[in-house]
Amino acid sequence: MALSLLIHCSPTVNPLRRSPKPTLRRVNHRVCVASAATPLLQVNDLRAKIVESNVDILHGVNLTVNQGEVHAIMGKNGSGKSTFAKVLVGHPDYEVTGGSVVFKGENLLEMEPEERSLAGLFMSFQSPVEIPGVSNDLFLAMAYNARMKKLGREEVGPIEFLPYLMEKLQLVNMKADFLNRNVNQGFSGGERKRNEILQLAVLGADLAILDEIDSGLDVDALRDVANAVNRILTPEKSLLMITHYRRILDLLNPTHVHVMDKGKIARSGDISMVEAIEADGYETVSALT
Ligand SMILES: Nc1ncnc2c1ncn2[C@@H]1O[C@H](COP(=O)(O)OP(=O)(O)OP(=O)(O)O)[C@@H](O)[C@H]1O
């Protein structure tokens, strides 16, 4: 994975934008600071194709995510969920052919992947890649310091970084041995997923996109990962997760659930929609649209 996709820094400040007065609201036991005026992410009629084959995959996705909300996207295999997530972070395999995406008031589609990350987007991929020859701790330190540099702050040395890193390691319930190993090399599927959450904990994000973070996790690992995500989430942070399973939804309490079908969000609702999906499958839910 390109380092640039992982580097993230705090929100860039647009002096031309007046910040709306925040209001407090409660979402699934979490008190959220909500901006009534500006959604965190506003996706309108987003269309995209695969660059190599020219095949259209996204056929007009609409989605609004506000600060502090937890959104889950479900849907049949091949319905376009991962493509949507990858288009949001600027994956080079896809070309946007229509629509708009506004993130924190800025045109996300005009930003390079690194800028999206710096603007506060983080994505954990369905299949996190290995980075041979780069140890996990070095990688995290480099990514963290790149963020500091972009923020105009002083970079931190190993003595300062290590306690910060150990605290995050504890949050994810990972053993310190993983820090000396090359990024994801030889990691089991579950260890890779945990490592993604460690990266999120170290780098932070205003909107974290987790693509099937629950796949391949045993019950204990799933609980650890969900607990870590819950601790990372603050009232200002938002989460967009892609999943096929209810277990993680019960742990992360989504405020919104969406079903994607044929490259569009076909239906949106709350957690109760998951019961209908589990009982009757996606056909029934799609038929309601
Ligand atoms: N880079 C690519 N090259 C070729 N086909 C692709 C590429 N990316 C996506 N596709 C195709 O686009 C469709 C949507 O894929 P996507 O991975 O977005 O689905 P998904 O909803 O995430 O599926 P799943 O639930 O199985 O993970 C699939 O038919 C897939 O084969």
From TrEMBL:
<dbReference type="InterPro" id="IPR017871">
    <property type="entry name" value="ABC_transporter-like_CS"/>
</dbReference>
<dbReference type="GO" id="GO:0016226">
    <property type="term" value="P:iron-sulfur cluster assembly"/>
</dbReference>
<dbReference type="InterPro" id="IPR027417">
    <property type="entry name" value="P-loop_NTPase"/>
</dbReference>
<dbReference type="Pfam" id="PF00005">
    <property type="entry name" value="ABC_tran"/>
</dbReference>
<dbReference type="InterPro" id="IPR003593">
    <property type="entry name" value="AAA+_ATPase"/>
</dbReference>
<dbReference type="GO" id="GO:1990229">
    <property type="term" value="C:iron-sulfur cluster assembly complex"/>
</dbReference>
<dbReference type="GO" id="GO:0016887">
    <property type="term" value="F:ATP hydrolysis activity"/>
</dbReference>
<dbReference type="GO" id="GO:0005524">
    <property type="term" value="F:ATP binding"/>
</dbReference>
<dbReference type="InterPro" id="IPR003439">
    <property type="entry name" value="ABC_transporter-like_ATP-bd"/>
</dbReference>
<keyword id="KW-0067">ATP-binding</keyword>
<dbReference type="InterPro" id="IPR010230">
    <property type="entry name" value="FeS-cluster_ATPase_SufC"/>
</dbReference>
<dbReference type="GO" id="GO:0009507">
    <property type="term" value="C:chloroplast"/>
</dbReference>
<feature type="domain" description="ABC transporter">
    <location>
        <begin position="41"/>
        <end position="287"/>
    </location>
</feature>
<protein>
    <recommendedName>
        <fullName>ABC transporter domain-containing protein</fullName>
    </recommendedName>
</protein>
<keyword id="KW-0547">Nucleotide-binding</keyword>
